[in-house]
Amino acid sequence: MSRRAREIIDLSSTLADIWRVLSDEERVLIKKNARFVHYKKNETIYIEDEQPKDLMCLLKGKVKIYKSGVGGRNQIIRMIRPIQYFGYRAFFAREPYVTAASAFEASTVCFISMDLIEDMLRKNGNLALFFIQMLSFDLGVADNRVVNLTQKHVRGRLAESLIFLKESYGVEEDGATINIYLAREDLANLSNMTTANAIRTLANFVNERIISLDGRKIKIIDEDKLMKISNIG
After folding, report:
1. What percent of the chain has pLDDT over 70?
2. Contact 55, 29 (CB under 8 A)
3. For residue 194, what are the contacts with CB-CB under 8 A and spacing of at least 6?
4. Cys bridge to 190: 37, 76, 182, 219, which one at CB 3.0-4.6 A?
5. Partners of 10 in the beta sheet?
6. Residue 5 pLDDT > 90, yes or no?
7. In whole angstroms, what is the distance from residue 35 CA to residue 54 CA?
8. Stated pTM of the model
9. Mean per-residue pLDDT, 81-87
């Protein structure tokens, strides 16, 4: 079996949520036009101000959506996990990307032309509703993050980020080590703080036996206390 044939099989199973609202003809068009791109760790997927052309779905790996800030410091806006879609909002808004995306680790992304998707949307009300629901969900997540990142103190922001990472990517076989390894800078960018503050707060969490560290691995020891710190803010 060819590599593309395997990817098409992966595509139909991975996109099960959108697959069920497509007609047989639309599924054939998706399979025919889908492109698969493999990215190395830290490789850029798209950049700010680039014109959007494709719907993207992460098939394997981990991807970060981020925006450049003051002084060249990046702010991580969202973390994408497998079977999540991204890159389509800017197309619907008829504007360039206001964020950038890159691979946290070796990743495979499926690209489907947004022109094709838009043509289907005009004919398929269920598909249109599917995208409305996705956009609505993403807006809710964005609203919550704006409040949390601006009103919570450093400890609350970092605790929330660790819980978010655990819920998004799960844990290793020990049931406690978060299944993603982030540089301290990335963790700081996710939590809207300086790298120095992230390192200091992580050290405090270790001293309080809330977490333990092994290089970039973070093991949650006391999730209840971590949740309490996040809630208190």
Report:
1. 91
2. no
3. 188
4. 76
5. none
6. no
7. 10
8. 0.81
9. 91
> What φ, ψ does residue 192 adopt, rounded to 5°?
60, 55
**Which stretches does DSSP call E strand in the chain?**
35-39, 44-46, 54-60, 63-68, 74-80, 85-86, 100-103, 107-113, 211-214, 217-220
HSE-CB at 107 with a 13 A cutoff on CA atoms is 26
Would you mind telling me the total number of residues written for the chain in this entry?
233
Residue with token string 């489907």: 112
Give CA–CA dist 69/74, Å, rounded.
5
Distance CA 141, CA 163 (A): 14
Question: Phi and psi for 100 in degrees, rounded to 5?
Answer: -130, 165
| One-letter amino acid of 216 | R
Question: Rounded to whole angstroms, how far apart are CA atoms 155 and 207?
Answer: 14
Contact 186, 105 (CB under 8 A): no
- In angstroms, the CA 188 to CA 133 distance is 30
Least confident of 13-17, 97-101, 112-116, 209-213: 13-17
- For the sheet containing 74-80, what is the strand order? 44-46, 100-103, 63-68, 74-80
Encoded amino acid at 124, one letter: N
Return the pLDDT at 233.
67
Which tokens hold the place of 121?
Answer: 């949307």
pLDDT in tens, 159-175: 999 998 998 888 898 98
**Distances from the Cα of 216 to the Cαs of 110, 184, 198, 202, in angstroms?**
28, 8, 13, 11
Phi, psi of 170 (to 5 degrees): 75, -170
